[in-house]
Prior knowledge:
alpha+beta
Amino acid sequence: MAARMKHHVDANWSHAVLVCKKCSKKLKGGFGPDGSQKLSKELKARLGSKKGRKGHLGVIEVGCLDVCPKKAVMLVDSRHPGVWRIVRPDADLDALAGELAVAD
C-alpha cells in the first residue's frame, strides 16, 4: 500500500507581504536605524512576524516583479494584489507596518 501524500498544509497567516528580492539586492539594505537592513527583515521585526507558517502573516522575498524602481523596493500586500507599493529607504516604516498589520 502506497503512503498517502498531503495535498495541503495549514498556515496561521491572514495574508502575505511579497517583497522583491532583486530590488532589495540592488539597494544593498537601506532600511532600519542604520540603513543596513533589507526591507523584508525590517518589516518582519516591526510586524512581529514569526518564522514560517506559524506566524500571523508572512513576509516573503520573491523573484523580480519586473517593475524595478530606482533606489526603492517593490512590495505587494496579498490582500490588495492590484496595488503594488514602491518603498524608498526614507519611508516611514512604522506607518507602513501599521498598514500591513493584521486588522483585529
